[in-house]
Amino acid sequence: MTAGPLAMNRVKPAILLTIAFGAALVTAAEPPADRPADSPRPPAKNPAVLGRIPDDQIPKTDAEWKKRLTPEQFEITRKKGTERAFTGKYTDTQTPGTYRCICCGEPLFTSQEKFHSGCGWPSFFAPIDKARDKTVAEHADHSLAGIPGFGVRTEVTCRRCGAHLGHVFDDGPPPTGLRYCINSASITLDPTP
Ligand SMILES: [Zn+2]
Fold first, then answer.
1. Which CATH superfamily is domain 47-191 in?
2. For residue 108, how far is its CA from the centre of ligand 1 (angstroms)?
3. Which pick of 73, 95, 102, 181 has the fewest CB atoms within 10 Å?
4. How far apart are the C-alpha atoms of 171 and 52, rounded to whole Å?
């Protein structure tokens, strides 16, 4: 009565060995990886670089954002980070065009309101909507309030997707007197054709 199960036990290892050997052959036949496992991951595929993405395709979780954004873009836009001064790609850019949100593709600023502030970040005296409340939102930021020379700052975010963009200060040029100090990593430029 016990011959059946015993016989099966003898057969199973042989089957497993065959499967394992086959898998090893398949693995060996695969072409070598293009890059070492510890190299930086390639640039993310971010549809917002190409244009304004539909409302229902705006990510809702950090995991979803991480799939689209570079680590720097994620840290700045979704975790309120700040790129180092004078390191951003648009700090001194004078190319005519429209700057859109790197997260959702919404147009936020244009080159017509961009000015050279010398502060180390792209600076605009107004957002693309002059009313200041349609495309960007402003929030009180107390994160550096206890440090001498700072006080409460006004954070600027993309109204549509909540991306952190930078801060707005009241030391800008005419006609608004405002300086929107924006991280290059938070925006993408569409040059005017
Ligand atoms: Zn956005």
1. Peptide methionine sulfoxide reductase. (2.170.150.20)
2. 9
3. 95
4. 31
